[in-house]
Amino acid sequence: MKLLVFGAGFSGRAILSELASECECAIGTARSETKRDAIEATGARALVYDGAITDELADAMASATHLVQSIAPDHQAETGSGDPLLAAVKDGFAGAFPALQWIGYLSTVGVYGDHGGEWIDEDTECRPVSRRSKARLAAEDDWRLAAAGAGRPLAIIRLSGIYGPGRNAFVNLSEGKARRLIKPGQVFNRIHVADIAGATAMLARGQTPGTFNVTDEKPAPPQDVVEEAAQISGFRLPPETDFETADLSPMARSFYGENKRVSNLRIREAGYRFRYPDYHAGLKALWSEGNWKG
After folding, report:
1. How many CB atoms lie within 10 A of CB 175?
2. What is the DSSP letter of 159?
3. Which pLDDT band holds residue 77 (cuts at 50, 70, 90)?
4. What are the CA-CA distances from residue 19 to residues 9, 32, 182, 189 (Å)?
C-alpha cells in the first residue's frame, strides 16, 4: 500500500498512525511546514499542499495506491462543490492518480440535516441545512463522479462529532470552557478519532466501496458528556445554561439546528468492531490512559 492523505489534521494523522507501519510509503499533506513534525511523528512523510501541486506532490499522487481526502470543501465557492483536490486536478483526476486502487473521502453526518431526533442510516434522505454541510454533500457527489470516471472504488466516510487526545470534554473542563447547554430533546453522536482511523484502515485494506456512517452507538444530550467527564475527573461542573438564552456564535447555534440519531450498523456489518462504542468507553479510556491532554 502506498498511502496519500490529503489534509493530515487530527483525523488524517490518526489514519496515518494506523496504517504507516504496513505501508510501502505513507505521505500526509499540510498547508504549511509548521505541521511537518506532527505528521512525521506518525511514521509518515510530510508534504506541503496549499492549493498548488508541486512536482514532488505530483510524483506522490502518481504512485499512490490508496488516497484519503480529508480537506473540507470551500463552502463559499461560487460553482461546483469547492473540493480543493478535485479543483486542482480538474478533469485530469485519473491521469493524476494512475496507480490508485481505492479512495476514501471523509465527510460528515451533517449532510443528513435535521431529522427531529429520529434514527437514520445511510439510506436516509440527505437534506443539509448549513452551507458547510451542503458543500460536503456536493463534494460527495463530485467524488462519486471522479471515482466512477476513473473506475476506482470510493468509500464515503461520514463522521460525527470528533473527540480524542487533546480534543475532549476533559480539556474543556480543565480550561474552564465547558458548557452545559440545555435544549430539551437534543442529541448528538460522537466518534473517537481512533475509531475513525480503525474504520478507515479496514476499508482501505479491503478496498471497500460504499457509504458508511462512522459514529458511536449512543447518541446523547451534550450535557450528559460534560457531566460524565466531570464525574470521572473531578473537574468543576459548570452550571446549566438554557440554549434559547445562551450567548452563542451563529456557527455554534447552527449545530443545534440539526437533531438526529445516526446508526453505524452498516460499518459494523462490514466487519468493523468499535474500540470505543460510546462516549462512556471513550472518556474512561482517555482518563485512565492519561492521554486526554494530547
Report:
1. 9
2. E
3. low
4. 15, 23, 40, 26
Three-state DSSP class for residue 14: helix
39 phi-psi bin (left φ>0, alpha ψ -120 to 50, beta other)? alpha
pLDDT tens-digit readout, 203-222: 999 999 999 999 999 999 99
Q: Of 138, 82, 106, which is closest to residue 211 (Cα–Cα)?
A: 106
How far is Cα 2 from Cα 162, in angstroms, rounded to an integer?
26
Q: How far apart are CA 52 and CA 152, in angstroms?
A: 24
The DSSP string of 47-59 is EE-SSS--HHHHH
Q: Which residue intervals of the chain are DSSP H helices?
A: 10-19, 36-40, 55-63, 84-89, 93-96, 131-150, 169-174, 193-206, 222-233, 250-255, 265-269, 279-289
SS3 184: coil
User: 124, 72 in Cβ contact below 8 A?
Assistant: no
Cell numbers that stand for 164 in this block: 480524542
d(Cα 100, Cα 63) in Å, to the nearest integer?
8
* Mean pLDDT calculated for residue range 85-114: 95
Q: Alpha carbon 24 to chain centroid distance? A: 24
